Amino acid sequence: DVLARRDQPGTRLLPSTPETPANDAHPSLLSTGPTHDLDTASDELVAWLGDRDTAVILGRGPARAAAEMGALTIKEAVGMPIEALQTAQFRHGPLELVGPKLAAMLIATEPETAVLDMGLAKELSDAGASVFLITEATRPAGIPGLAIGPVDRLLSSAVSIVPAQLLAWKLSAL
């Protein structure tokens, strides 16, 4: 079974495997397979957010669209102040916000910058922020998140927005 990957000409769809496992012991959304229910997944996201009063969604390139839409969805559905920023803009600007009161969802699906984004996620986590990392495959040990699998670059933003949508759905119901 050949996986549909964005680096193979002519492929545009998700792979036939249901998930790509994370590389650490932390559970990730969808980590238990296709029967993982939305209530459990959304509860995991609410736990990640906790009682933090500052939240951001970060992304680069096409992932920036997912960050913007995710933040807008949460703002409109819940009335929660949350901002979307370009990842490099955050590093060279509001990085001073980092600490235990910050929740950062980082979408690191761009292959050219994934290593930089995962490095930032580790730095944020080490500084006490609650980090949720969305990647194509693996992420640093100890950082919760979602591995979306090898998805065509044109579709990765649509897949990457799901955690923000689930968080908005759950928070609006609380």
Residue runs with pLDDT of under 50 for 5 or more positions: 1-35
Strand content: 5-15%
- Record the strand order, biggest sheet: 2-1-3-4-5
Compressed to H and E, one letter per element, the order equals HEHEHEHEEHH
Detailed description of the structure:
There is one protein chain. The longest helix has 16 residues, at 63-78. A 5-stranded parallel beta sheet has the order 2-1-3-4-5, with helices on both faces. 38% of the residues lie in helices and 15% in strands. The chain is built from 6 helices and 5 strands, in the order αβαβαβαββαα. Residues 1-35 have low confidence and may be disordered. By secondary structure, it is α/β, with parallel strands linked by helices. Helix 1 crosses helix 6 (162-173), helix 2 (63-78) packs parallel to helix 5 (153-160) and helix 2 (63-78) packs parallel to helix 6.
Question: What's a concise summary of this model?
Answer:
It is built from 6 helices and 5 strands, in the order αβαβαβαββαα.
Topology:
Elements: H1 38-49, E1 54-59, H2 63-78, E2 83-86, H3 87-91, E3 102-108, H4 114-126, E4 130-135, E5 145-147, H5 153-160, H6 162-173
Parallel strand pairs: 1-2, 1-3, 3-4, 4-5
Helix pairs in contact: 1-6, 2-5, 2-6
